[in-house]
Design a protein that fits this description.
Blueprint (H helix, E strand, L loop, with lengths): L7 H10 L26 E3 L5 H7 L5 E7 L6 H14 L4 E7 L4 H7 L6 E6 L2 E7 L4 H15 L20 H11 L3 H14 L4 H17 L5 H4 L5 H13 L3 H14 L2 H15 L7 H14 L1
Parallel strand pairs: 1-3, 2-3
Antiparallel strand pairs: 2-4, 4-5
Helix pairs in contact: 1-2, 6-7, 7-8, 8-10, 10-11, 11-12, 11-13
Length: 304
Amino acid sequence: MTGAVDLSVLKERADAARTRPAAPSRPPGTEPTDSGSAPAVPPVVEVSEATFETEVLARSEQVLVLVDLWATWCEPCKQLSPLLERLASEANGSWILATIDIDANPRIAQAFGVQSVPTVVAIANGQPVAAFQGVQPAAQITAWVDEILNKVGDQLTGLPAAEPSEPTEVEDPGMAAAEALLDDGDLEGAVAAYQALAEADPTNVEAASAARNVEFVIRAQSHDPSVVDSAQPGDIEAQFAAADVLLLSQRPDDAFDRLIALVRATSGDERSQVRTRLLSLFELFDPAEPYVVSARRKLASALY
């Protein structure tokens, strides 16, 4: 059948259809390939005039496409179409099936010169290469497809493999319970839950980090926000409170700079106390955050 059917009208139709939503095809399938990953293309797709170029012509450069031209009123179609879908699912990506309702897509039926249904046309590299009409037994269809693949299979690039899916993470019920307390506004209960998880499993850094963060929020919310302006330079506790309020207000640079200035203004045990508080605030953030990196450099300069 090579060259016997003019499919250019369908390509032009598809180009024009790109300016409006195309008819959806079925979601990707999960049939296995040799590598064990799912192919990126389903074994059976429903095709319309808008998707014909992509799902049939372009796809046929990768893999043999069997086009099943059928109609809802066609009784033989009700026998052949399910058989073709089963064979396509069992083909493991060696060929795919494109199903087309000729009543809904008359231009496609016209392009193929369909006289009766069911009609099945094999497409390779954008051209029809073989066809049959009427219901055929599974063994005969399989032999027919194998013969076509023997002739044109080496000309096709093959289907792309789907991207491997990310492994599904199993939710820790303890962490979920602690998060639920947090969502309900029970900060004290959430801290206790996170601390219990961290104590039970010292490797649970997520629980330990969450406990530190919630503890900080509780402490920062207990301060009067006016302390930012009222804290006296020599009042360490007031300066600590001011830094907490600034940090809670998403002003980490100002919070860190305030305590670094306090490091420069103190000495001995007081300086150690301020340094310890500042390091504990650093632990609330990713150490790679630019404002944390900058603050650590400023702290080192202030200390040495």
